[in-house]
Amino acid sequence: MCPLWPFHVFLIYGIILGPLWMMTSAAVNQMMHTWNVSFEPSSLLNIPIGSLNTVSFETYDLTPEEIQYGVVSVQIENAGHDSVEPVDKIYILNTEPMNDHYWSSAFNISANFLGYAKARLKLKSINDDRTLKTSNALNITVVREEKAIDKAFTWSVATLVSIIYINFGCAIEPDIVKKTLKRPIGPVIGFMSQFVVMPLVSFGLAKVLFPESLAMQLGMFFTGVSPAGGASNIWTVTLGGNLNLSITMTTISTFAAFVMIPVWIFTLGQLIFAAANTKIPYARIASIAVGLVIPLSIGLALQRFCPKIAKFMARILRPFSIILILFIVIFAIITNYYIFKLFSWQIVVAGLGLPWLGFVFGGLLGHVFRQPPMDILAIAIETGIQNTGIAIFMLRFSLKQPEADLTTVVPVAVAIMTPLPLALWYVIKKFQAYSSQKRNIRLESDGVGDPSRLEPLSNGNGRISSHE
Ligand SMILES: *[C@@H]1O[C@H](CO)[C@@H](O)[C@H](O)[C@H]1NC(C)=O
C-alpha cells in the first residue's frame, strides 16, 4: 500500500483548496474593512528589529453612539510568528478629545522579529465587549539590519555553488552517461521524481505546514524545484546503490534545472507569489539559470582543453559538495542565528519531510517500474537529496527582505536534516550486516551452517527492495 496513504488526501486538498481558501479569506477581509482610518505613515515598511515606531491616525468615520460607548484598541495580526506588538494602548472614546466626528491620536508599535504584520484599530462596545467595527490595515514589515557578513554569506554560497558547477562540468563522464542512457528507464524515472514529484510534494507540504506563511511556502517550493545535489553520489556509493545511474541522473538534472526551475516558478510558483502580493523576479530567476550555465560550460571546456586541471577538479567535486553543505549549515548558524528563532515544529517536519518524501517517492516509482534494487536505491537517494545551495542562492538573490531572510530557513533546515535518515539507514545496514555475520559464525560453529538459508539475510540489496 502507498505509505503516504492517509496523507495523499491532504496533499491533494492542499494543492486544490489552498489557493481557493486564500482568495476567499482575502475577499472576506475586504468586506469587513468598513471603518475608514488614515494612518500616518500609511505603512511601516522595513522597520528594523528592536525599533519603536509611532503611528498617528485620524478618522471622521464615527457615529455619536460609538463615541459614547466605544473602546478602541490596536489589534495586530502577525503572519506566522510574533514580529511586532503594540505598546499597550486603549482609548475610551468618550474621554478622548473629539472635534465633531473628527478624532486623531497615535500609538506605538515595537518591532521584535523579522516578518510581516498588519495593525488595525478595533472598536468595541464598552457594555458588552462586542466588536463594532475594525479599521483598514496598516502594513508592517520588519527586517534585520543588513551587516557585511550577510552579504559575505550570500556571495560565498554563490561562489561555492559556481565552483561546484565548474567541478561538475569537469566530472561529467560522457561515456558513462551514454552507456546508462542506453537503458533510459532509470534516468527517466529519476527525472520524473526529481522535477515532477518533488515540486508537487514541496508545494503540497508547504500549503499543509505553512498555510499562513507565504514566505515559508516560497522557501519550501524553491527547495523542492532545486536539482539533485552532488552529495547524492556520495550517499549512493556509501549505501551500495548504482553509482553510474546516480551520476547520470545528477548530470541530467543539472542540465534540466536551467529549464525546469523557471518553468515551475513561473507556473505553480506564481500561485504563491500572487498570494504574497509579490512579483515573480523573472529577470533574477533567468539570470540565475544563466549564471549556472556559465560555470558548467567552463567545466566542460576545461575537460576538453585542459584535461589535467579538469581531472583535478573532478577529483575534488565530492569533498567540495560536502564542504558546501557544512559551510551552509555552519555559516548560516553563526551569522543568521535568527534562523533558530524560526525553527518551529513545522520547520523540523518540513526539513525532515521533504527528503523523506523524496526517498519514498523515488523508491516507490523505481519499485513500480520494476527497477533492480541498486537502481531503486540510486533513484530514491537522487530524489531525496536536493541541492540546497542552489535554493539558497536563488532565494537570496531573487527576493527582497524580509522574504530572503525568512525563506532561507527552509533550505537550511533541509540541509541539516537530509543526512539524518541516510545516516540512520547506514547504521541499520551496518548493524544488520554485523549481526548476520555473527549469526553466520555461530551457526557455523554449531555445525548447522546452511548457506542457502542465510542467503536472503546476507543479500543487502534484496533487503532494501523489500523495505521500500
Ligand atoms: C511612543 O514612544 C515614545 C518614546 O518612548 C514616547 O515619547 C511617546 O509618547 C509614545 N507615543 C504614544 C502615542 O504612546
The tally of beta strands, per DSSP, is: 11
**Which ligands appear in the coordinates?**
2-acetamido-2-deoxy-beta-D-glucopyranose
Task: Report the uncertain regions.
Answer: 449-468
Strand content: 5-15%
Helix amount, in percent? 55-70%
Number of distinct helices: 20
Query: Into how many domains do the coordinates divide?
Result: 2
So, CATH architecture of the largest domain?
Up-down Bundle
**Measured on Cα atoms, how large is the radius of gyration?**
27 Å
Mean residue pLDDT: 80
Roughly how many Å apart are the termini? 11 Å
Q: CATH class of the largest domain, anyone?
A: Mainly Alpha
Output the CATH topology of the largest domain. Na+/H+ antiporter like fold
What overall form do the CA principal axes indicate?
A: elongated
Protein name: Ileal sodium/bile acid cotransporter
Transmembrane segments: 6-28, 152-168, 188-210, 282-302, 322-339, 345-369, 376-397, 409-428
Subcellular location: Membrane
Pfam families: SBF
Characterize the structure shown.
This protein is an alpha+beta fold. It folds into 2 domains: 34-143, Immunoglobulins (Immunoglobulin-like), CATH 2.60.40.10; 148-434, Na+/H+ antiporter like fold (Up-down Bundle). 65% of the residues lie in helices and 14% in strands. The chain has helices at 5-32, 64-69, 148-171, 174-181, 185-209, 214-225, 231-239, 243-266, 268-275, 282-305, 307-315, 317-335, 338-341, 345-368, 373-384, 388-398, 403-417, 419-446, 451-458, 460-467, and strands spanning 33-35, 38-40, 43-48, 52-59, 70-78, 84-86, 90-92, 103-111, 115-125, 131-135, 138-143. The strands form 2 sheets. Strands 1, 3, 5, 7, 9, 10 and 11 form a 7-stranded mixed sheet that branches. The protein is elongated and about 95 Å long. 2-acetamido-2-deoxy-beta-D-glucopyranose (NAG) is lined by residues 52, 54, 87, 106-108. It is a multi-pass membrane protein. Keywords: Membrane, Symport, Transmembrane, Transmembrane helix, Transport. It is found in: Membrane. Pfam families: SBF (PF01758).
